[in-house]
Write a structure and sequence with these properties.
heterodimer; A: alpha/beta; Rossmann fold; six-stranded mixed beta sheet; four-stranded antiparallel beta sheet; 9 helices; 10 strands; B: mainly alpha; ABC transporter involved in vitamin B12 uptake, BtuC; 11 helices; 2 strands; 1% strand; binds adenosine-5'-triphosphate; binds magnesium ion
Amino acid sequence: MLLEARDVVSGYGDATILNGVDLSVADDEMVCIIGPNGAGKSTLLKTIVGIVDTWEGQIEFADEDITELPPERVVDHGICYVPQDDNVFADLTIRENLRMGAWAAEGDDWFDFDERVEAVYEQFPVLRERLGQTAGSLSGGQQQMVAMATALMLDPDLLILDEPSAGLAPKLIDDVFERIAEINDAGTPILMVEQNARRALRESDRGVVLDMGENHIEGTGGDLLDSDEVAELYLGAT
Amino acid sequence: MVLDPQFIWNGIVVGSIISVSALGLTLIFGILNFINIAYGDYMATGAYLAFALNAQIGLPLGVAIVAGVAGMAAGAVLIDKLVFEHFRTSSPVTLLIVSIGVAFFIRNLIRAIWGPTGNFYDVPIEANPNLFGVRYSVEQLSIIVASLLLLTAVYVLLRRTRIGIAMRAASDDRTLTRIRGVDTERLVLYVWIAGGAIAGLGGIMLGLDAQIRPNMGFTALIPIFAATILGGIGDPKGAVAGGFAIGILQEVSVVVVPSEYKFAVALAALIVGLLLRPDGLFGEATR
Ligand SMILES: Nc1ncnc2c1ncn2[C@@H]1O[C@H](COP(=O)(O)OP(=O)(O)OP(=O)(O)O)[C@@H](O)[C@H]1O
Ligand SMILES: [Mg+2]
């Protein structure tokens, strides 16, 4: 397994949010976490990237223990994360945002900023015309593009997305999912949380249902979509 | 009524000092998120360090200034290690109160070492030259030039360098900055160095323009805070614009209000400014 989290317990202050969660992502895989509001989905992602401390359990990435690492060290392992909210630097221009995305690699031999920016523009052409604009002046959809582009600057070994389609107009949602599928097809493993569960499960190799800080059901995207229990409890009526 | 250009000139000089000082304060706030009341006393410390080296030991003023600025940069880092670092996760209010304690400590230390009376740098006393009816001094010209150089340097730092962009990023969103791989504690160190150096320079400028007194920085805090807040706290270019606005307004106001009320003018400008633009001069809408 590329990412392997075992029995993870974490939370905020006195409040335990995750009660022993297991999660894994294999090479090339796209895994989607679904579950009701407040289930702890974002908390799980934050625990993996080190924003929230792991109280118990273990998190391994590419056979290395990353359980105790702070966020600024996790990125060195090739894990890039796009938070649910506040995922761009509003006061910085798009180019500066991309520069921040490249922080961990700048100065490395393999890394060529301009080349990487070009690659990212190929994926997100809208950004090209807006280089000098501050991210805060963009629409929600464009900000989401900037956030993803920033996280892709390092050509990550694992891309973690927290609700990439939240708050977007339907047409843009298609756009975002298309981009995510492209990124995964190009070989980047993806772990994402989505409210737009049906759509996300259809695109994913595997789905995980998280509720009350515990794993509930796990299976291929198709299995979860077909399951009556999942449909009733977590997907809502259609 | 014709406005005497002398007041405008004075305003530019004072505005330069306020701008520089406000810039340092706002940089510190941007990353550390608290209002450092001791900042005024950092300014005084810089002024006194340069005074000791120049007037007491007899080094040339230029050398004393560089050493005073460097000394205060080191001092700011030291105070962080001794005091502020232990309150990193405390609320801004706690930090504000802690900084009041630091302020009192520094001011009394200065008083104990150098006494309560005013002092001057050892500068040659010459008749001030006069240009188009404006009297100016070499010190004033140097203050303006130095502040323009400093403001440009900080602008380039914040806009063009990797560290500077990361500083702006951290002042925008510290967690996201860490997610991108930045060791923000290291940025904090750089910001104390820059903020301390700028405070020291601001204090020396203030001492050159007027007198070196133990409470010189503390009393300058009102217009500096006014400039910082008017500019939108944490926004460097706002602090600079606010600094010149407050400085010029304050000096020109002497025409209509007695000069003891200068600071009231700064406060009034702050209140009116905040009513008109609650997010500061360059608040959300224009950024
Ligand atoms: N910073 C925080 N401090 C304290 N409690 C928090 C914090 N962030 C989240 N929580 C609490 O933790 C629980 C799980 O929140 P989390 O954000 O992980 O849920 P989620 O599954 O991502 O929900 P959503 O679908 O709304 O994004 C919630 O009860 C929430 O109130
Ligand atoms: Mg969430």
